[in-house]
Input
Amino acid sequence: MLMDKMCHLKPLAAVGWMALLVTGCNVSPSPEIRNIASGNSCSLGEEGVRREERRMTTPMIKKIEIERYSLVTPKAFDQVLAALNAEIGHPNLADFLSSTREAASPVEVENIVAKALGRSGLMLFVELDHGGILRKTTDQSGAENVRLVVGNPLIMKEMARHVPDAGSYAPVTILVDARADGIHLSYDRMESLLAPYGNPKASEVARSLDQKVEALLRKAAE
Output
């Protein structure tokens, strides 16, 4: 197993992936922001409004140290990909999103998600064949490189209710690519991505997600 650390720069923005599923969030805007949003900006004064608007639009950069988890296997590329797909759910995404939007209760949402998950407790959101582009547009005629975006919306919800930026990182990316030394399976650990936010509850949930993903990669590599 290889695990590298790298730095990632990201704007601090609360991204609401599948916001429908994020319930119980305690994040609330400041009184000044609520005043502006409601049109009641008189209490701030003209200069106060401008100052608040500048504060809201000024980019903030946070440096994040990432742990990248990698496995290398001698198995054939197609075998590895098939092993991964055998363990994750493959819902019709349009139907899945429609069903969650129309769900009348949290319990109904949980049931919909549960049916979409595979044995790993994860589901596929999208599969991108980077190798196909490489083969057609470069001299790498034998390139094999596939990105799988997988996750569990209920796990995402538990992280995002404590750290809204978790919506930027979930679902996670698993990269499967063929190199000279074998097939590499890699992804960035969620716990490392959320560590800078200093929220123990979000980190605990992220750790459980990492365990699911790493168990999936190990099984596919066997």
Remarks:
- The radius of gyration is 21 Å.
- Residues 7-221 form a domain with the TATA-Binding Protein fold (CATH 3.30.310.70).
- The chain has nine helices and six strands.
- The first helix runs from residue 31 to 38.
